[in-house]
Design brief:
- It is a single chain.
- By secondary structure, the chain is α/β, with parallel strands linked by helices.
- The protein has a seven-stranded mixed β-sheet with strand order 10-13-14-9-8-15-16, with helices on both faces. A six-stranded mixed β-sheet has the order 5-4-3-6-7-18, with helices on both faces.
- It is built from 18 helices and 20 strands.
- The protein is globular, with a radius of gyration of 26 Å.
- The termini are far apart.
Length: about 500
């Protein structure tokens, strides 16, 4: 049986009935969070999540939930962020399932106790590293990918043996309601919960004291999350949006470059934290790139993207108005620029003659707008990138190895991708996260497991060598200190400074 096609934009807006968050049967706010936190804390203390069999069963149930309710998730995301079915399946459901299946295949290996190399002082002892779950974790979702950004971290938190409270984006009411309904039907009712909170309620929730807080969002709210977590000494993972630069060199496959940038910037109507925010184009490549971008947009969305089943809409009035303001106050429209307020529609737009002081270069871009600036060479591109805060992603399109090396090694960012965009952020075998202003910590695959675990050092000592360890005891004698110093110096060259204390 074939899957139903994505609804047309016209049907989206005729059928769409926006539901207010207070009308949904959702647990919301700090009071509801305190209630489920108490239950989750009790379940964790009872060691409900300790066994690998329990964790694997929960991960398998999560995969079943996605498979059983694919159409429901497509419908919810269509209502919330107007995603075409193809984008929902590819960039939300498939990514979560891939993450869960990868984790299921590797979990027992990740959970194994690691034996640490011993020095001579511990020759008769065991030195172990044990992966210990942190406790109860709070995962705060984001509206740009409302399913993926809740459930991918959830996979890692489950694998590490934690109890979890997820807080789906309040903006995406239908997705939040669906998760709230399905999670109790598939996952353990004591260990895993869903609570919706408005942005201003999140610090109050964090004050309830979690063992780890995962947040994907903007810098302003990320700072508030970090401050609230610091009050209770909770660990944090912050993945923060920012201005992701994309350098296009004169030596690159210009048509492939244009298609890949067009896909990355305009999927989900440009509402992505990992898409290229602006292009730094080599002056010699500018004209060819502009024409290739025009061709790619025509190929992807036709002569009127408003009628395309492959192009979405802005999630709400606030995001729409901000993007519209950036569009009208920045640069010159090369292609696109059409706006429809009733549908919250902005056509895929390429801007030229953009300067650094334009609003679109000063703020995060969450809309289908691509500004282009020109540079003389890679050196100027590196200098421009390094003059700004460290981004979440840096992209480069080039076939020149010297240029590639320069961009990759002389800039600092959460991640780097050559000759493509976005894909590095969803690879299960690679860590993804920010640095500096773009966040701290990383996740995906084994790195998610590590993010939600405490690596506990365990030294299991024997009592059989008291004839050596007596040297540390009072009364202190110079002779004993000389023996300790001699033993340590003999060990220094091969294994580093050690002590028998």
């Amino acid at each position: 049986m074939s899957s139903p096609p994505s609804p047309s934009p016209t049907r989206w807006f005729k059928a769409l009935r926006r539901t207010r968050i207070e009308d949904l049967c959702l647990k919301s706010g700090a009071a509801a969070c305190a209630e489920v936190l108490k239950r989750a804390r009790a379940a964790f203390r009872a060691r409900r999540t300790a066994q690998d069999s329990f964790r694997l069963a929960q991960l398998e149930a999560l995969v079943r939930m996605l498979m059983d309710h694919e159409c429901d998730f497509v419908d919810a995301l269509g209502r919330d962020v107007h995603k075409p079915r193809f984008e929902t399946v590819m960039s939300e459901l498939m990514i979560v399932k891939s993450e869960a299946l990868h984790t299921i295949s590797n979990l027992k290996k990740w959970m194994e106790v690691q034996h640490i190399e011993r020095n001579w002082a511990a020759a008769f002892d065991e030195c172990l590293l044990v992966n210990e779950p942190l406790g109860v974790v709070l995962i705060i979702g984001n509206w740009t990918s409302p399913l993926q950004l809740c459930l991918v971290p959830l996979v890692g938190a489950i694998a590490a043996g934690n109890c979890v409270i997820i807080s789906p984006s309040e903006t995406c009411t239908h997705t939040a309601e669906l998760l709230h309904r399905l999670i109790p039907a598939y996952l353990d009712n004591e260990c895993f919960h869903s609570v919706v909170a408005a942005a201003h309620e999140i610090p109050e929730m964090i004050d309830l004291k979690f063992d780890h807080v995962f947040f994907f969002g903007d810098k302003e709210n990320g700072i508030k999350v970090a401050q609230a977590a610091a009050r209770t000494l909770a660990r944090v993972t912050l993945v923060l949006s920012g201005k992701n630069p994309c350098y296009v060199d004169s030596q690159c496959d210009i048509n492939t470059t244009a298609r890949r940038i067009t896909w990355a910037r305009f999927h989900n109507a440009g509402q992505s934290a990992v898409a290229p925010d602006y292009i730094l184009c080599h002056v010699d490549a500018k004209d060819n790139l502009l024409q290739a971008l025009r061709c790619a947009l025509l190929q992807f969305y036709g002569t009127d993207p408003r009628e395309s089943r492959s192009f979405g809409r802005m999630v709400n009035e606030e995001i729409f108005n901000k993007a519209k303001d950036q569009l009208w106050r920045s640069g010159k429209v090369f292609i696109g620029g059409q706006v429809n307020d009733m549908e919250r529609y902005i056509a895929p737009t390429v801007l030229t003659e953009v300067v650094e002081s334009d609003p679109i270069m000063q703020q995060d871009v969450f809309g289908p707008i691509l500004p282009i600036l020109t540079v003389q060479d890679a050196d100027e591109a590196v200098a421009f990138i390094n003059s700004r805060e460290k981004p979440l992603c840096v992209y480069a399109y080039s076939s020149n190895n010297k240029v590639i090396s320069k961009i990759m090694n002389e800039t600092s960012s959460g991640s780097f991708c050559l000759n493509d965009s976005v894909l590095q952020s969803v690879m299960v075998g690679m860590p993804f996260g920010g640095v500096g202003a773009s966040g701290m910590g990383s996740y995906h695959g084994r790195y998610s497991f590590d993010a939600f675990s405490h690596k506990k050092s365990c030294l299991l000592r024997t009592t059989r060598i008291e004839c050596m360890t007596y040297l540390r005891y009072p009364p202190y004698e110079d002779r004993n200190l000389s023996l300790v110093s001699l033993a340590s110096s003999l060990n220094l060259r091969s294994q580093g400074w050690c002590t028998i204390l």
